[in-house]
């Protein structure tokens, strides 16, 4: 696009929604143990997705919808029978004008879909949780004349949790003749320590009763690894908790996943989803919460030893550590630098 003289920039969206049925909702289905039902999962949330914005006039749209337009060169769904996406007006996305061309509905769901969780039991589906802020975070591009990140989330949507943002979402739903509900009791996972690779994962489940009634909850907790596109692997950790809550009371339940429990089940993306599915005693009410944990690795330091001169050898020192409690073998250290190294790999 730049070669054609069209101003273009790369956009990165974190927690990017992939809504396959066009209802602006990312639907997830769980069984009574809190395990995701993969055979029913069609919508996903990618940990990030990238597209382009191109600056152009939109004489085919109502006035005010020119400027930056979304063009996705790597779409995963077809549009009118072709694998393409856009151009969709960023202004139309922000204002919930999901009926405007092209693929604005899908682009809206990438940045502002709600996540809905369903419990499947006995052939019936019951809504148990709705997250309005999980999709579309830290929408970013490169700053002008700088390598710093420029956060442009506010060009795609109003502030999460604000009245304007909810009004726009309801406006978009009304255009699709869809609906949305909310539920009461709150569950939330909070990490106690940084989730370092090779160490146990310590966290708590915070339960808050916002209703005027007493709550007697049974909670099924589970953990499973994820791929980068949100696809889950088999659960490797499960627990059951019983929590009683008086009106307006909150409690925490401590949780720990040992390194020995998750090490052999990790995917190459090092993502773990922890889930808690709660049910109230003598009531059909169900509650669900989940959290994605990204394991962190120790950094690698590169020290330049001595001054650097053109056409002369230069020695660098690479400092790294093994974060695991056991020795590792057959490791590979890869050094990259165009024309700088005679050998790119060292086996350790």
Automatic annotation (TrEMBL):
InterPro entries: Ig-like_fold, Papain-like_cys_pep_sf, Transglutaminase, Transglutaminase-like, Transglutaminase-like_sf, Transglutaminase_C, Transglutaminase_C_sf
Domain of life the protein comes from: Eukaryota
Xref: Gene3D superfamilies: Immunoglobulins, Transglutaminase-like
Residue ranges of every copy of the Transglutaminase-like domain listed in the record: 1-75
Broad class of the protein's primary localization: cytoplasm
Keyword Cytoplasm belongs to the record: yes
Protein keywords: Cytoplasm
Protein's UniProt keywords contain Cytoplasm: yes
Annotated compartments: Cytoplasm
GO molecular function terms listed in the Swiss-Prot or TrEMBL record: protein-glutamine gamma-glutamyltransferase activity
GO cellular component: cytoplasm
Protein name according to UniProt: Transglutaminase-like domain-containing protein
Organism of derivation: Neotoma lepida
């Amino acid at each position: 696009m730049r070669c054609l003289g069209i101003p273009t920039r790369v956009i990165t969206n974190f927690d990017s929604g992939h809504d396959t049925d066009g209802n602006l909702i990312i639907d997830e289905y769980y069984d009574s143990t809190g395990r995701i039902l993969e055979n029913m999962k069609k919508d996903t949330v990618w940990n990030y997705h990238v597209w382009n914005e191109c600056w152009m006039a939109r004489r085919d749209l109502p006035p005010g919808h020119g400027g930056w337009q979304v063009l996705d060169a790597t779409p995963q769904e077809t549009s009118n029978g072709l694998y393409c996406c856009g151009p969709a007006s960023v202004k139309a996305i922000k204002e919930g004008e999901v009926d405007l061309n092209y693929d604005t509905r899908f682009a809206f769901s990438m940045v502002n879909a709600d996540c809905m969780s369903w419990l499947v039991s006995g052939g019936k589906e019951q809504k148990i949780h709705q997250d309005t802020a999980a999709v579309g975070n830290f929408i970013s591009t490169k700053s002008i004349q700088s390598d710093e990140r420029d956060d442009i989330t506010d060009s795609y949507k109003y502030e999460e949790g604000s009245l304007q943002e909810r009004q726009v979402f309801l406006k978009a739903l009304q255009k699709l003749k869809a609906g949305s509900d909310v539920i009461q009791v709150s569950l939330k996972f909070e990490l106690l320590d940084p989730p370092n690779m090779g160490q146990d994962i310590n966290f708590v489940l915070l339960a808050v009763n916002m209703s005027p009634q007493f709550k007697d909850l049974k909670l099924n907790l589970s953990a499973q690894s994820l791929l980068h596109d949100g696809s889950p692997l088999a659960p490797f950790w499960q627990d059951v908790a019983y929590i009683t809550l008086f009106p307006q009371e909150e409690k925490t339940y401590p949780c720990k996943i040992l390194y020995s429990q998750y090490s052999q089940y990790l995917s190459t993306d090092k993502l773990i989803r922890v889930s808690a599915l709660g049910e109230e005693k003598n009531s059909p009410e169900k509650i669900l919460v989940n959290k994605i944990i990204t394991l962190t690795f120790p950094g690698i330091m590169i020290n330049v030893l001595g001054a650097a001169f053109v056409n002369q050898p230069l020695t660098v020192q690479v400092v790294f550590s093994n974060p695991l409690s056991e020795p590792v073998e057959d490791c590979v250290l890869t050094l990259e630098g165009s024309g700088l190294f005679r050998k790119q790999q060292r086996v350790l």
